[in-house]
Fold:
Amino acid sequence: EPAPEPEAAPERAANATQVDAGTMGRVRAVLSGLEEHAGPQFPLDGSRNVWVLKPAGKSRGRGIRLFNQLDMIMHYIGEETPEDQFWVAQKYMENPLLIYNRKFDIRQWVLVTDWNPLTVWFYGECYIRFCAEDYTLSDLQNNFQHLSNNSIAKYSDKFKELMLGEGNMWEMRMFARFLRKGTGSSEAWQRVQREMRELVVHSLSAAQGEVVNRRGSCELFGFDFCIDDAFKAWLIEVNCSPSLEHSTPVTARLVKSVCEDTAKVVVDLPEQRAKRKAAKETESKLLTEYDTGMWECICRNEVSVPRPLNTAGGTKLVCVGTAVERKGRNRRFRAASVEAWTLRREKHLEEVASNARAKTQKSSNRSSNDNLANLAAAPEPSVPGAHTLEADTFRSILEYTPKSYGSNQPNHVKWPVRVRALPNVRNSLPKVSGKLASVNLPKTNINFGMAAEMSAA
Structure:
């Protein structure tokens, strides 16, 4: 092709700029649509698909790992950890606000003095915890870059190389000064703290109906918040029994004050309110006229919330999901329908009872062993308070696992046989006395060769 004319080059460049602008406009439209449909947490997802895995029932960062591939998650929880360990999987915030290239979180103390009606106290001071090393998503196995727990960070070789504040912690006033300089607004910290209060009230209100209320008691929680690069607060987790150790100079000062102020709320305040009530004096809804130190009442409902009703037999509570099977181990993770599992179990029990009744009817030799039909039709035993063992009751309390008996005859199991009383019938089980019972199950022949009394206990 002939070379383009020199004067056409600027026009071609202008057309290219217009195409790029149009493409970027469509990209922005697609991202805006994704954000609208994905929900408010869409900006936190990032592009690395990083998930954080936390073991249930542990503290101080123990067992926490980061992954971005499902097979690595299944391998970790299946091959490297105990089988009975439960896990919490959370989408990792990939765009946290950084201070000197360090990730951080905010530990906020919250006190609940009454669950119903809900009464919540918010402590006026919090502290900032920094990670020991610079933040990056290129190395997900380095917890020193992602976990800010002091019990984890102190073991890093770089813990003391660039220590932010005292023990890699900041007090609230230092963080408020940082936000003021970073945003140019003197109300940046007030806005973040307001969001934190709303998250505290909403999260505790969501759990209010599930907690058994006990008058005259209280509980201290440690709420952990993270700030994204848009200066928005997000709730990461809620810790019961938060650490009150004097691990750093920052926590030494704050822990002392929070303990003293907690005594003012749970000990002094009830006495002061009782005296005020005796004098028939009125009080404000949030109890601002009392000395509670730095504790501020942010929620004090006046109406009790009834606990959820038992929906057994009513509303169907079904967990719908897909079964995920781990390679290399005979263990199955299920998030399948609870209702479907119940129906399969009931169908199996009906088949067991049907086969037992069919074999009982065909049996002609009743001299050696009494079958299940004879047992159900047996006369009332002489044991006081005892009654016969019905077929349906027997079917609901018998649990048999052939693999647990290492016998050379897997289809014939002799005494002892495990009989388990289910919780819903444990208190109403019958007693069997002076009978020899033979129960035939599919591929199984269980003999009760006991002439003595067998009690449900």
Notes: Residues 309-315, 329-336, 375-457 have pLDDT under 50 and may be disordered. Residues 53 and 65 are 5 Å apart (CA to CA). The two ends are 97 Å apart (CA to CA).
